[in-house]
Structures are given as C-alpha cells and as structure tokens.
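testing teh design pipeline on a random one, pls ignore if ur not involved
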C-alpha cells in the first residue's frame, strides 16, 4: 500500500535518533557489563522481568516523542494499552529495553527500539544498542543505516551454510532438513532482525508471542536493507491490531526468503511437533 508522505520525516528521524541516544544513556547508567544490573528488578504479571531502567526509558521517551508528534498514539511494552491507537493514523511503538534479561545479566544484546506507524505500517524505525556500539535506523523508502553507514542484507540465496539464529527447537528442526549454520540465539528480537539487515547473519526464526514493539522498528530497517519478515506461510506482518501479538515468524535476506519459506512449509507438513 502506498503511504502518504510523513511531513518533515528527515528532521523527525534526527530528533527521534537524539531521543534514543539519551534514552540509551539512562539505561547504560544501570547496566553492568558481565554483572547483574544495578537497577531494581521485579516480575510483571505473567512472569516476564522488568527493571527500573525499562520504566525510566519508557517515561523519558513518551515525553520526548509525544512532544515531537502530538497527534500520534502510543503503544509500549511498559505502558497500559489504550484502544485510542486503533483510530489514529500515527502510532509510536516503543520497547524501552528489548532484551531485558540480557540487560539484567550484563550481556550486551539489548536495545532501545522506537518505530512510528503510519496507517499501520512502519515508516520510521530506530534500534539503538548502546552496549554493542550500534545504532540502526531507517525511513520508509530511504534505505537503512548502522552508525550512519548504509547497510544491506547478505547475498545468500540457499540455505546451505546460511547463518541462522533463533530459538533452539526451531533452529534444530530446520537443521534436520537443511545444512544450515546455526548461530547463538540473539536474545533481543530487534537485534536478531537488524543483524540480518547488516549481513552479520542471513536469517532468523521467531517463536510465537512476539509483540509489535519487539518487531516494528527492526522490521522497517530489515525491509530497507533488502530483507523480509513474514509469517511461516509468507503472510505479511500486520501492526496495530487490537491484540498486537504475532505467531511464528521468519526473517531473512531477500534472496533467502523463498527457500526458507519452503523449508518451513516442509516442517509444518511433517507435523506441528517439529517446531
């Protein structure tokens, strides 16, 4: 679908980029490389962890982003959902710290993620990973960058020796039917996608239950770098639904999409227990 242009998109991207860098500094103050975080931590309903850093970054970004585009609604992992977003053209989608468990345990693979949806499609995305010294960003139709340098997915067109990250059961099942090269799971879903975008890896698998805030920013970056995120039958990822939860997904360099989809269909046809 062709989207109307976002007014002053380049200026908006620069302002969001600055906000994400400042948000990263809030998190870094409580991050301890190789050690347990200095932040207070607790569990949300359902058992997933949260830290005071998540809440601090979320609060900071809401103030900054709402000032930049007051007409935009808000969807964040750490904020109570408001159905108003379903009626708005623009929606900010935020994960203040994607990869909270990694952050808590002193591992570097966590990121501040911000996307702007326009009529349900991401048109601006930033994934800022301070502990990895990496900031990815993209505007719809403007390409993708890492630390200001243009990036593109790998040229892989076959699963043979393809570097693939994801949950072990999914990767192991795929390895039974294809000679892939499994790589360590990347705990941040956003970084799993952006590392496909910059050709660090070739593809990634995502189990059920990912949320819009895990995906939207990195999805745009991946698309602008020549990659693709979809369901395991090739269906498009739809954002800003009433329930922003997704099923199993696959992400890859553009040339790897068809063979990866074919492999996933073979696994599905072999029985759901394979995945």
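output:
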């Amino acid at each position: 679908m062709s989207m109307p242009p976002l007014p002053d998109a380049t200026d908006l991207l620069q302002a969001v980029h600055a906000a994400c860098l400042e948000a990263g500094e809030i998190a870094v103050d409580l991050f301890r490389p190789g050690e347990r975080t200095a932040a207070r931590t607790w569990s949300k309903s359902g058992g997933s962890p949260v830290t005071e850093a998540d809440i601090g970054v979320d609060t900071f970004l809401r103030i900054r982003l709402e000032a930049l585009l007051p007409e935009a609604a808000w969807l964040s992992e750490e904020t109570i959902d408001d159905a108003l977003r379903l009626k708005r053209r623009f929606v900010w989608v935020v994960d203040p710290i994607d990869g909270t468990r990694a952050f808590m345990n002193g591992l570097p693979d966590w990121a501040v993620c911000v996307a702007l949806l326009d009529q349900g499609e991401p048109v601006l995305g930033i994934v800022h990973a301070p502990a990895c010294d990496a900031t990815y960003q993209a505007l719809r139709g403007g390409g993708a960058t890492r630390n200001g340098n243009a990036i593109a997915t790998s040229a892989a067109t076959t699963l043979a020796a393809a570097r693939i990250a994801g949950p072990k059961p999914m990767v192991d099942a795929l390895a039974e039917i294809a000679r892939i090269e499994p790589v360590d799971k990347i705990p941040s879903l956003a970084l799993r996608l952006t590392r496909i975008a910059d050709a660090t890896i070739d593809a990634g698998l995502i189990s059920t239950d990912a949320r819009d805030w895990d995906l939207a920013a990195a999805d745009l970056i991946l698309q602008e770098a020549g990659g693709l995120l979809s369901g395991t039958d090739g269906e498009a990822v739809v954002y800003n639904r009433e329930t922003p939860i997704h099923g199993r997904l696959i992400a890859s360099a553009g040339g790897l999409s068809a063979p990866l989809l074919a492999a996933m269909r073979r696994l599905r046809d072999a029985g759901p227990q394979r995945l």
